[in-house]
Design brief:
Chains A, B: One of its GO terms (molecular function) is oxidoreductase activity. 2 copies of one chain form a homodimer. With 226 residues, chain A is α/β, with parallel strands linked by helices. Chain A has 10 helices and 11 strands. In chain A, helix 5 links the parallel strand 4 and strand 5. At the A-B interface, strand 7, strand 10, helix 9, helix 10 and strand 11 of A face strand 7, strand 10, helix 9, helix 10 and strand 11 of B.
């Protein structure tokens, strides 16, 4: 499958690496490839991953059958606007970003929050996309290798398009997520709930001193008769 | 121990019932006892719990060595204002409420949210209280009987006063919480994180069709050396 991973930070690189290891054809999208390659950290990663091309957002989006939003939540709309609506139409966008706002320091707040979410904002702004919010509630190494955290734990799905969610489920299974760990919360509105896990996630990371943890919904069995 | 449970809804009654069953001396506080007893649901519960007195907020607060805030989050400041600062000074307030705002319908939003929390608001408004935020991330029947949800799951603690948190820990153990399930997030500021679990909690209840579930932090072991 051809993927476009939008965003060149640790999250985008970690997902791109995993997709390549599963045999997918991956292009990473960025605003300015020259500027990205001038970052030592990216250049080093690029050298270790010669099979991953780096391209402007529009070229990456044209390449991808499926898009992954791994940009910072405050710049996701701008990135997808650069990607060009013609390259988005009908495609699945796996939105793993969070609308973290660091403008007031650490810990960040969220914007939007509570009566809106980044997932909804993207679906509303780019109606041709089929947005599936998932994986945004954990560290990126856990996203692509759930066995890093021992025991059962949960990955949530939110989105309007059943076929899109089905295809994202298959990708999650290929990352190592057991079927029982995937919890479909319903429509994209439910992304409000998963994005609002970030504040406690950040405080847990501080308290525990590491990021190899995840939320598990204990007792998450549907009521009898469902 | 003498407890004042502020709030006459299902949460307050469930906690009061459990405290009585553990041998504590409990008074429930309300704005207007006559109006509360005129509610058939409360009158019925009162009849089954003759050992629990119902009193105005101030009388209940005077009675309690420890206070439990089980009022609606939008009226908690008003309730504690009626309770009278003289009856609050130096006491532990176990804040199990959430600032749910139903003014725009269901699902509710939160107010305050993100850059403030009900726990902080109460600590700031009533500096004589030692506020401990806990138990607000689950259904009230799970609060007082964690075994309703099979397996390990988590109850969070937030607060500024170490002695107050220690005494609340003891109460949680007496409710049936294993020591390993109590996760101290730090100061009262961390209540932002636990209160912001409510949006996903409400959506999970809708998806699962029941309330016998809880969050578990899988992998919540402190880093080596801590």
């Amino acid at each position: 499958m051809r993927y476009a991973v939008l965003g060149t930070g640790i999250v985008g690189r970690t997902v791109a690496d995993r997709l390549v290891s599963l045999g997918h054809d991956v292009v990473i999208g960025t605003r300015d490839p020259g500027a990205t390659l001038a970052r030592a950290e990216y250049a080093e990663w690029q050298e270790a991953h010669p099979q991953v091309a780096l391209a402007p957002f529009a070229d990456a989006a044209r390449h991808g059958d499926v898009l992954v939003n791994a940009t910072g939540g405050q710049v996701s709309v701008a990135a997808l606007t650069e990607a060009d609506a013609a390259h988005l139409d009908g495609k699945v966008l796996i939105d793993i970003a969070n609308p973290l706002d660091f403008s007031r320091g650490f810990p960040p707040t969220l914007d939007p929050v509570d009566d809106d979410s980044l997932g909804e904002l993207l679906q509303r702004t780019f109606p041709g996309l089929r947005v599936v919010k998932t994986l945004n509630t954990m560290n990126c190494r856990v996203m692509v290798d759930p066995a890093r955290v021992p025991g059962e734990h949960t990955v949530f799905l939110s989105g309007e398009d059943a076929d899109a969610k089905k295809s994202v489920r298959e990708l999650l299974y290929s990352f190592g997520w057991p079927e029982a760990s995937v919890l479909d919360l319903g429509g994209i509105e439910s992304a409000r709930g998963t994005e609002m896990l970030l504040p406690i996630w950040l405080r847990l990371m501080g308290t525990l001193g590491h990021a190899d943890f995840n939320f598990h919904i204990q007792g998450a069995t549907a009521a009898a008769g469902d």
